[in-house]
């Protein structure tokens, strides 16, 4: 099984390899939210959770707060642009899936992200289901971006990443929200402490205690 974004190395070349087969941007009629959301069984489930509803229950901007050991990170999720991704994130948050998890990877060269959302903290774990990308081909990753990690096209699960400095990546990762300015500063402070002895996890640990929804 291929590991998700950044779980093998931080090389941009590797990331391009993992996403080179991404499909063409979806039309409005073929976008996942337009035809309902399909969540299919996948390996790697590390916590028992219910599959999200196929019909998105949220619209517009959805506020979520990552309560972490480093401080709170406020997120604004775009449920209109990425209804299935937001539906999954909200469902997992409501079920406590992210509670007591550790952000398992920090990159400080080439790409600048903190990756979270895997209760196993190995980079291989997920919710036991996967779902399609929600891309239009214009995705960019400036500081503050909240996006889904993946192991290739249409392999989204629970892992996500927080961009703390502008990062060059192909438009192959679903962007489903943004951090506020205070959240960017918080993640930058974590990054300033560098990577720990294992060369993967942040030297200053970031543990998610809960995710609350507005």
UniProtKB/TrEMBL annotation:
PROSITE patterns in the record: CSA_PPIASE_2, PROKAR_LIPOPROTEIN
Top-level taxonomic group: Bacteria
Keyword Magnesium included in the entry's annotation: no
The EC number(s) this enzyme carries: 5.2.1.8
Enzyme class: isomerase
Residue ranges occupied by any PPIase cyclophilin-type domain in the UniProt entry: 67-213
Keywords, comma-separated and alphabetical: Isomerase, Rotamase, Signal
Annotated signal peptide: 1-22
MF annotations from Gene Ontology: isomerase activity
Database matches in Pfam families: Pro_isomerase
Annotated SUPFAM superfamilies: Cyclophilin-like
Region annotation Disordered: where it falls in the sequence: 26-62
Reaction equations catalysed: [protein]-peptidylproline (omega=180) = [protein]-peptidylproline (omega=0)
Role played: PPIases accelerate the folding of proteins. It catalyzes the cis-trans isomerization of proline imidic peptide bonds in oligopeptides.
PANTHER family, alphabetized: PEPTIDYL-PROLYL CIS-TRANS ISOMERASE B-RELATED, PEPTIDYL-PROLYL CIS-TRANS ISOMERASE-RELATED
Similarity comment: Belongs to the cyclophilin-type PPIase family.
Protein name: Peptidyl-prolyl cis-trans isomerase
Native source species: Microbacterium memoriense
């Amino acid at each position: 099984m291929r590991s998700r974004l950044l779980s093998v190395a931080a090389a941009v070349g590797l990331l391009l390899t993992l996403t080179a087969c991404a499909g063409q941007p979806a039309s409005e009629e073929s976008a996942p939210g337009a035809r309902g959301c399909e969540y299919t069984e996948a390996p790697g489930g590390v916590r028992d959770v219910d599959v999200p509803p196929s019909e998105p229950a949220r619209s517009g901007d959805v506020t979520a707060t990552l309560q972490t050991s480093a401080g709170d990170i406020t997120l604004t999720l775009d449920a209109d642009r990425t209804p299935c991704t937001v539906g999954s994130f909200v469902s997992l948050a409501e079920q406590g899936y992210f509670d007591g998890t550790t952000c398992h990877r920090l990159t400080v060269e080439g790409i600048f992200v903190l990756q979270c959302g895997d209760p196993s903290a190995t980079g291989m774990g997920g919710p036991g289901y996967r779902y399609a990308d929600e891309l239009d081909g214009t995705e960019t990753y400036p500081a503050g971006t909240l996006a889904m990690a993946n192991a290739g096209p249409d392999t989204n699960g629970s892992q996500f990443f927080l961009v703390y400095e502008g990062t060059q990546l192909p438009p192959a990762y679903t962007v489903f929200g943004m951090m506020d300015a205070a959240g960017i500063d918080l993640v930058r402070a974590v990054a300033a402490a560098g990577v720990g002895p294992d060369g993967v996890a942040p030297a200053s640990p970031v543990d998610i205690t809960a995710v609350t929804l507005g």
